[in-house]
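Researcher: Please predict.
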Amino acid sequence: MLTRGGRLAAPPCVPQLVSEPGSPNGKMRACVRVTILFTAWIVSCGGEDATDAEGSGGSAGSIARGGGVAGPDAGGSAARSGASAAAGNATAGAPGSAGRGGAAGSGGTGGAGSSAAGSAGLGTAGSQAGAASGGSSGGAGTGSTAGSGFGGAAGTPAVPPLDCGAEGWAVENHGPAANRINYVIVGDGYTAASVETTLVQHIETMLARRFTHESGQPYGRYRKFVNICVMKAVSENDGIGNGPTAFDGGNGGDRLARVNESKVNAYLREQLPASFEVDWKAVVLNQALWENTGSALMLWSGAHAESAGAALHEGGHGFHQLADEYCAAGTGDRCGRNTEGSGAIGDEEAEINSTGNPMTTGKKWDLWLGTTQKGLNTPDMGATGVQGTFEGSRYVDSGQYRPSLNSMMNSLFGEELDTSFNSVSREQIIFTIWRALKPIDSTEPPAGTVASPVDVNGAGVLKLNVIDPAVINVDWTIDGVTTMNAGTTFDTSTLSAGSHTIVAKAYDNATTDLVKLRTSMCPSAVTGRYCAATAWQNSQQEVAWSVTTP
């Protein structure tokens, strides 16, 4: 079967090593080996190079179009092709009712900031209210310069419903599934009653840290890039360990969780539409034990006090291919201090956030050395501090170095600022998000030759519907003259009579505080599914029109 981009799927399961922090006796390493076929208990189904180091489980497997279980992304710039969204006249949306399972409110952003006279586009800010989360308010269109023809965020098409299947809850619906990361979370150990109460509480706890605390960044910034479905699978018994559950969840050895992944995949094939492509899979277990697994199918225990941190940490392994940054001595500052480029040389592993060479970091984060990480929340309270070469990482006390004293991939406990993803990991997260996406959902009218472009309101406006106007800037080039960050619309009535070439370039406006490596090339040691930097090329996209005006 084929995965996104036409690659052949990997076999269903391969040997995999996984790990989990948090042992009180300081022993950080835990491994589990998984048989390939015909075995009931499967902890992790991974991808290529699946016998590699602990903690970085296989990249997120996806349910391929047509319902087959596809293997992992091989790590190239495999964006979906043909992503589209229905064009339409979206007026400012009213808030959707918050609450469990509520339908996403159809919302728009501000009115078009463009006209022949270049009047300010101060439309009413629409709101996109999602089920339970309440969504976020759309920004009003920014004003345009008189006579320029450029506008702010015009009314965007209503977000189509996200079809998560009969037992699915569309927790986060931000746009067409064909151009979003589709994150599917399956509950195990919840009864028909507790899927409506306990499961909802566990998910809301996870979302709160993901979207409101600094340690959840950059997911807050890229919130509209990820759709989330929660599958309300019903078990006959409430809680793991109280009898059979839907997916046989339980202990996988030491602090690891395990489920029957074959049952999970079969359930997803049965429940989700055949056209729905799963990018990121997880199971939340109804238990308070500290048992979690970072693998292609990531697992976390929803009732534990640190469940939200566990979900972030394990996602760092399973979807973003990050290494554990703790050492044999323990976590956080129990590992070594910043060597500032000195220290014993060790092996260079494939994960981006651990290096064996403190002098060069294997070119993994040399661009970040000496910088102090900024926070993304407002106000900026900082995050993991100075980025350097801190001795001790990847379960050893020497010969491996991590980028920061502490981070989400080290000691995740509590909600201190230093439990955030450090600069190197944040950059990797952004790259892996861009693996599957392009900035533009659709254009109005379609790119190409147009005699007299007319939108549904009767104005001659060219419009880009981008994933998120707050994250995606648009430059417009009119007959070779470029205007930077000019909004998502251009009014062709400002053009002189004749033929014109109009090019719009949409791109991620992340500053170098977020992304420094912009070559779309990975360091030599970072290969296979660990190599995500190649996806940065997907973060910009151009479309062009040939326009003839009378």
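Model: The first strand starts at residue 127 and ends at 128.
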